[in-house]
Amino acid sequence: MGNTPNVARRSESSRQAIFAAARELCAERGYGRLTIEAIASRAGVSKKTIYRWWPSKGAVILELLDEAATMKAHHPDTGDLAADLRTQLTAVIGMLAPPQTSALAGVIAEALHDPALAHDLRERLIEPRIAEFKNRMRQAQRQGQLSPDADLDVALDLLYGPLYHRLAFHLGMPDPAYLDTLIAHALRSLSMTQ
Fold this sequence. Notes:
The chain is an all-alpha fold.
């Protein structure tokens, strides 16, 4: 019994090797030049192993991004809404930059042409983070930091829209000073009674 291989441990180590390879290759080559073959070779696994778990490179990267976003881009609640938004938005900016090698920017671009990936991106990565954002904003409303009738869909667009606008048109991600200005203006508009 002691000599029986632990399949779960082997599977998890292969999974982590695949994620590490995909992350490294994206950083080196960019998402567009990423292939399942290159991931398999770098991870030391077969293409068959990857395809057993994921249908495409987009699916591999999406799961990798989901784990990264859970660790890096959560919505803190320190009681200081502006600081918490700065922390969260800075994490998102870090995931989008530089766009040439950002796995997230690559998946977003591919999802424009792949309806199944777009669906999975929304369901797995985007919608849960929107729910977290709205929960954090509702807490701010309860604490009197935002108007109780602030439209949280508009809040989402005011705070995150500029990041994706700047990404789409190659304008560069906001620097810390601009991000602070963006947050201050958005919070000012959301604090006013309608």
